[in-house]
Structure formats: C-alpha cells, structure tokens
Specification:
Elements (H helix, E strand, L loop, with lengths): L7 E4 L5 H14 L11 H6 L1 H7 L1 E6 L5 E8 L13 E9 L8 H15 L4 E7 L3 H9 L3 E2 L5 E4 L2 E9 L1
Parallel strand pairs: 4-5
Antiparallel strand pairs: 1-2, 2-3, 3-4, 5-8, 6-8, 7-8
GO molecular function: N-acetyltransferase activity
Keywords: Transferase
InterPro entries: Acyl_CoA_acyltransferase, GNAT_dom, NAT_camello-type
Length: 169
C-alpha cells in the first residue's frame, strides 16, 4: 500500500471537528446515503463530530500536510454511539473517506486501526453495521476478514436496512 505510506491515523483534535463532520457528510452523500437529503436527522448526526470526539474515539487519517482524508468512529458497548456492540466488542461506526482519497487505501487503513484498537483493549471482536446498498464498503470488510452477522441486522427507519458484520480479533 504505497499510496498510504505517507498517511497517519490518529485521534482527531478538537480544532478539526468541523472538517471531520463535513468530510463525513460529504462522503455519505456521495454514495447516496442518507438518501432523504438528511430529513431523518442522520446527516446532522454525521456532521456532529464534536459529539463523537466527546463520547467515542474519533480517528482520522491525515497526510503529512495535515489534510484530512478519512475518519472513523470507535465505540464501546453501552456508549452513546454504540448500536449493535455487546460486551467484549468494539464497534466501528461512520467510516468515511474524502472523495479525492477514495481507492487509495485510506478506508482500509482506518479499519485496520480499529482492529488494532480492539486488540489493544483486549476485546474479542469488532462489529459494525452498514447500509445494505453499500457494496464497495462490504467488499472492503469481507476482504479484511469480516463475516456477516445477520442476527444483528436492523432497520433504523422504514427505508433503511443496515446489515451487520463481525471480525474476531
């Protein structure tokens, strides 16, 4: 992955939360999600990186110049951003890669950072849920060893189906 050799994954800083929120919203809208133009309130949640910084771990991938290329939220069970995780699991949420950085390994770098974090914390697995229509993300997860976890699939809204994945670490 020579293309990510100059990138670093680190904790987001408080002075970056607006940029992280905007990057997240733009990345999700680029793939047609949320499809309602944000009417469900999910776009507002995606934009609120400050809340993720306070209540979860907010990671960013940045180049040497400090340009943010991607982000992911890491949540423990029972915390405000956890949706499907249980004891012994770390939950990967809101993975987003800036449009100019797509296809360069940024998403993989961020997912691998979450896996490493789960190991550091001594947890058993990483779990996540993803919109059913997001097949490029699903291919990434499956390539990294994640398997489907249909028992935790769910519908946060009438027209939204989220499918779950798990990886033992």
């Amino acid at each position: 992955m020579a293309e990510v050799a100059d990138l670093v994954v680190r904790q987001a800083r408080s002075d970056e939360v607006r940029r992280v929120g905007a990057l997240t919203v733009e990345a999700y809208r680029a793939v047609g999600y949320p499809g309602d133009g944000g009417g469900s309130g999910y776009a507002t949640l995606l934009a609120d990186a400050e809340a993720r910084l306070r209540s979860a771990e907010l990671l960013v991938a940045a180049n040497r110049e400090g340009c943010l290329l991607g982000t992911v939220t890491v949540a423990l069970p029972g915390t405000p951003f956890a949706e499907i995780s249980r004891a012994g699991e770390l939950e990967l949420r809101m993975l987003a890669v800036a449009a100019p950085a797509r296809g360069r390994g940024v998403g993989e770098l961020l997912v691998r950072a979450v896996i490493a974090r789960a190991r550091e914390l001594g947890l058993e697995r990483v779990v996540l849920c993803s919109p059913a229509a997001l097949s490029p993300a699903h291919r990434l997860y499956e390539r990294l060893g994640f398997t489907r976890l249909p028992s935790r699939d769910w519908h946060p809204g009438p027209e939204v189906q989220l499918i779950a994945y798990t990886l033992d670490v």
